[in-house]
Design goal:
The chain is α+β, with helices and mostly antiparallel strands. Helices cover 22% and strands 21% of the residues. Strand 1 and strand 2 (25-30) form a beta hairpin. The relative contact order is 0.21.
Length: 78
């Protein structure tokens, strides 16, 4: 997976952002204010590791980079 450039922290504006990606989860956090987003197997969304390897890093990156002025998206129950 190509590493996505992360925006500054949405809470404090710091650019001291850390990302941990393993075979079962992805965490992105601000080293200044400790805001954090996590995606992966422990979140209960994925049924198998194959799904997680394809999606959880991208989902975490997108969630961290999302801002209030982004287009709204429809939320659906799956």
């Amino acid at each position: 997976m190509k590493e996505t450039e992360l925006k500054p922290c949405p809470f404090c504006g710091s650019t001291d952002i850390r990302r941990t990606i393993t075979t079962s989860y992805c965490e992105i956090w601000c080293n200044c204010c400790k805001a954090k987003i996590s995606r992966g197997l422990f979140c209960g969304k994925y049924d198998c590791l194959a799904d997680a390897e394809n999606d959880f890093g991208k989902e975490a990156n997108n969630a961290w980079n999302r801002r209030a002025d982004n287009e709204t998206r429809e939320i659906t129950d799956k």
